[in-house]
Specification:
By secondary structure, this protein is an alpha/beta fold. Helix content is 35%, strand content 22%. The protein has two domains: 5-74 and 176-270, Periplasmic binding protein-like II (D-Maltodextrin-Binding Protein, domain 2, 3-Layer(aba) Sandwich), CATH 3.40.190.10; 83-171, Periplasmic binding protein-like II (D-Maltodextrin-Binding Protein, domain 2, 3-Layer(aba) Sandwich), CATH 3.40.190. Strands 1, 2, 3, 4, 5, 11 and 12 form a seven-stranded mixed sheet that branches. Strands 8-7-9-6-10 form a five-stranded mixed sheet.
Length: 275
């Protein structure tokens, strides 16, 4: 019998297809939920064996021997809707930036985009706590991620940018927000295959997920369904890997990630089948 594997995931709508009925697929899985930044902390502390962590936390934790479980990601090949930068002034005049407290990868993406496209490196003035409205921040620009980013009205802001769309326009590549990552020495057994089955089932039941979670989020069914099936990509293929490598390079230039990070995968033969 395979020993238990402690797995951490996020409760955001965008992640739900990745672990749909995972505990039914694999009885040895012990699944817990938290926000992305805390999952990264728990993985680093050894409280989790596998976690769905922000891609920047993989890059920053490479010296811990982390391994990417191949084939899986939360990625976007165009606008993502759930990662937005709200500006109260023109982008080239942003001096003070507030960051969503639950984010890590998107924080770095926002800073890369502001520097690359507008030549500004704003001071980080505050984190926007979970549950606090973007309207309460007085910063020049505010980053908001997750389900709440899809509900913030654009009215009243000088500009709003979808950062995944901005990345695509800047690089021509998909953007990878999160990865399944394992601590070194963890025996995964048939977990990659179970994750692949779970993802396939989650996408096959996207209509059910949209109906269940849309009302709670204040989103209509069509918006949720389109988000899960068209907006997001759950594959980590060659285009996503190329985007991840470019993200690593750009983050390193700003001193936000180590230089020369090499992506390490948990046994290539475990590569999850693409949809």
């Amino acid at each position: 019998m395979q020993p238990p594997i402690r797995i951490g995931a996020v409760s955001y709508l965008n992640a739900k297809p990745l672990y749909y009925r995972l505990c039914d697929e694999a009885a040895y899985v012990r699944l817990s939920m938290d926000v992305p930044s805390r999952l990264a902390e728990q993985l680093a502390a050894g409280a989790l064996d596998v976690a769905l962590i922000p891609s920047i936390e993989y890059l920053r934790g490479v010296d811990r021997g982390y391994e990417i479980i191949p084939g899986f990601a939360i990625a976007a090949r165009g606008p993502v809707r759930s990662v937005k930068l709200f500006g109260r002034v023109r982008w080239d005049r942003v001096e003070r930036l507030a960051l969503d407290a639950g984010s890590r990868t998107s924080q770095v993406l926002a800073r890369i985009w502001l520097d690359s496209r507008h030549g500004v490196r704003p001071a980080l003035v505050e984190e926007l706590p979970l549950g606090v409205s973007v309207l309460e921040s007085t910063a020049d620009a505010v980053l908001v991620i997750g389900d709440r980013a899809m509900r913030v009205p654009h009215q009243g802001f000088a500009a709003v940018v979808d950062l995944a769309a901005a990345w695509r326009g800047m690089t021509g590549l998909p953007f990878v927000f999160a990865l399944w990552v394992a601590r070194p020495g963890v025996e995964l057994g048939d977990l990659p295959a179970a994750l692949a089955r779970s993802r396939a089932a989650g996408l096959a039941h996207a209509a059910e997920l949209a109906a269940t979670h849309g009302p709670r989020l204040g989103l209509d069914w069509a918006t949720c369904y389109d988000y899960l099936t068209r907006t997001l990509s759950y594959d980590l293929g060659e285009p996503e890997i190329a985007g991840l490598r470019q993200f690593a390079e750009r983050a390193a230039r700003l001193g936000l990630a180590p230089e020369g990070v090499r992506l390490v995968f948990h046994r290539r033969r475990d590569l999850a089948p693409r949809r």
